[in-house]
Amino acid sequence: xxxxxxxxxxxxxxxxxxxxxxxxxxxxxxxxxxxxxxxxxxxxxxxxxxxxxxxxxxxxxxxxxxxxxxxxxxxxxxxxxxxxxxxxxxxxxxxxxxxxxxxxxxxxxxxxxxxxxxxxxxxxxxxxxxxxxxxxxxxxxxxxxxxxxxxxxxxxxxxxxxxxxxxxxxxxxxxxxxxxxxxxxxxxxxxxxxxxxxxxxxxxxxxxxxxxxxxxxxxxxxxxxxxxxxxxxxxxxxxxxxxxxxxxxxxxxxxxxxxxxxxxxxxxxxxxxxxxxxxxxxxxxxxxxxxx
Length: 292
What we know:
Layout: E1 2-8, H1 15-26, E2 30-34, H2 43-46, E3 49-64, H3 74-78, E4 86-87, E5 90-91, H4 103-107, E6 113-127, E7 133-139, H5 146-164, E8 168-175, H6 179-185, E9 190-195, H7 199-214, E10 219-224, H8 230-242, E11 246-251, H9 256-262, H10 274-289
Parallel strand pairs: 1-8, 1-9, 2-7, 2-8, 9-10, 10-11
Antiparallel strand pairs: 3-6, 4-5, 6-7
């Protein structure tokens, strides 16, 4: 089983549209994992039918037993996050501000405060219109630890891939280079970098390539909107050569990405359109590079 992770140094490059198109082309040869849990949107293109869902717990949350609280205010005084306001005659925990450090519970003279596991989101197993299984998730408002949720989504996807003997796990990673991205790269077989020829596109590509190189992973690049700026496009080509990164394909700017997203469809569902052919060309190269 090969794990193909699609990432971009910045948002807005068309990463999710391209990943969802790979999922359509792979069909039941792939298990799909939407690891962009901070802003999951692949479900809008693959129309998942949820078959299973579970809450995701991560971190701790302080809870005050109002009957045991003597309202001494020591907990509020020592909380450096101002997470225990005095409201309507009682001390309450602000769940968004609480960092779960547990110091308030330790200093409470009546043991009125205890720590509970914090519900941080949900994760799902779904069937998609591409005739494959998709693992996806969403974080609760203000919840953290998205790196752990990414790891959960990936691990569940790999379990199902082994169970179904699927040759691929296709992962839609987060933009940027933070913890969720690094979590999505762990255990990857091949990384697809999606970029665009803009100043910020080149800058963020350089940053994310440094991360990929640190993981010692093979990678290829798709340059979307390749005709936006010829000078920067050439800089990207030179950079890829210098870093020994394969160019998978270049896709000229085309409003089909936006138009198909509005329709809730992937680009490759538009038949023989030139962009669809470019994406299929890239997918075929990825399969060859991974020798399946």
